[in-house]
Design a protein that fits this description.
12 helices; alpha/beta
Length: 315
């Protein structure tokens, strides 16, 4: 795995992949997958941004098999409709990369379903998306689900009394919780896949600290992370470099199911993908199982039911 780059991605011809997010790391991931011959669906909320992303991918990879599909991860109906569309247009799916995210809006905001925006989008939205695509994934060839965490997850905690910012909202505290939830979801999905025989490999990854528009667009004008991004850009690695851990998790034959990958240098802030540090909180199986039950309750979606469903109906 030493100094793994996009040059190490195997031939992906004939493999189908979905990635959420039209900009930043999502865009660079789509480019790399298309270059390796995969059929790529880029899923995002804004059709104009999606069309521009597809145009840019094709400019860099003229032979790209790439398409845009509208998906709002902050709206359970949109997620269900996305799953319904794909279930009627394709027979299987090989890889799902749960990449898109919201980071630290300065004031508390909510999804269409009343969830705190970060927890609802970063975790619950991708939880529901994975559930709605579970049947297609089970029919895929060596199917994988890659869930994007963050360095911030290492300082996060799952507060079941404040999942939805019911008691308090602190932008980075709630962001860290949502990203820890994403990592724990990846591990719990692997445990449940193994127990139920779903045949899906679930892997987590994080990009380190990259020049993504996630930080630049996230918080207020004088937010510390925004100021650092604007005034000290040399601290942030290129977005294409930040995409490497998730690309490794999605494509490398050496990526381990139930694994977690991130950059190898400067406390996992930059570099090439290696096995990432897993904090003790992320390993707590009891909390992960409870979080899974809460996610099923909040989204109204049962993975056990979806695993045997032949179609998906909007909520």
């Amino acid at each position: 795995m030493t100094n793994w780059t996009t040059n190490d991605i195997p031939d992906l011809s004939g493999r189908s992949m979905i990635i959420t997010g039209t900009g930043g790391i999502g865009f660079e991931t789509a480019v790399a997958l298309a270059q390796a011959g995969a059929e790529v669906v880029v899923a995002g909320r804004n059709p104009a941004s999606g069309a521009e992303a597809i145009k840019r991918v094709r400019a860099r990879v003229p032979s790209a098999q790439v398409a845009f599909e509208q998906l709002d991860l902050a709206d359970l109906r949109s997620i269900a409709a996305f799953g319904e569309r794909l279930s009627t247009t394709r027979e299987s799916l090989d890889v799902l990369i749960n990449n898109a995210g919201v980071m630290a809006p300065p004031t508390k905001r909510f999804t269409s379903d009343g969830f705190e925006l970060q927890f609802g989008t970063n975790f619950l939205g991708h939880f529901a998306l994975t559930g709605h695509l579970l049947t297609l994934l089970r029919k895929g060839t060596r199917p994988r689900v890659v869930s994007l965490g963050s360095i911030a997850a290492n300082g996060g905690a799952i507060d079941f009394q404040n999942l939805n910012a019911e008691r308090a909202y602190k932008p980075m505290v709630n962001y860290s919780q949502s990203k820890l939830a994403c990592v724990m979801f990846a591990f719990e999905l692997q445990r449940r896949s193994d127990a139920a025989g779903w045949g899906i490999d679930s892997i987590a990854a994080h990009p380190g600290v990259s020049r993504s528009d996630l930080i630049l667009n996230s918080a207020g004008r004088w937010d510390f992370s925004r100021l650092m991004r604007s005034s000290l850009p040399f601290l942030f690695q290129p977005v294409a470099q930040g995409a490497l851990p998730s690309l490794y998790a999605a494509t490398s034959p050496n990526a381990q199911k139930g694994g977690y990958y991130g950059p190898d240098r400067l406390s996992e802030t930059r570099g090439h993908p290696v096995a990432a540090k897993i904090v003790d909180r992320a390993k707590d199986r009891e909390v992960a199982a409870r979080l899974w039950r809460e996610a099923e309750r909040m989204t109204g979606l049962s993975f056990s039911h979806m695993a045997t469903a032949t179609s998906v109906s909007p909520l």
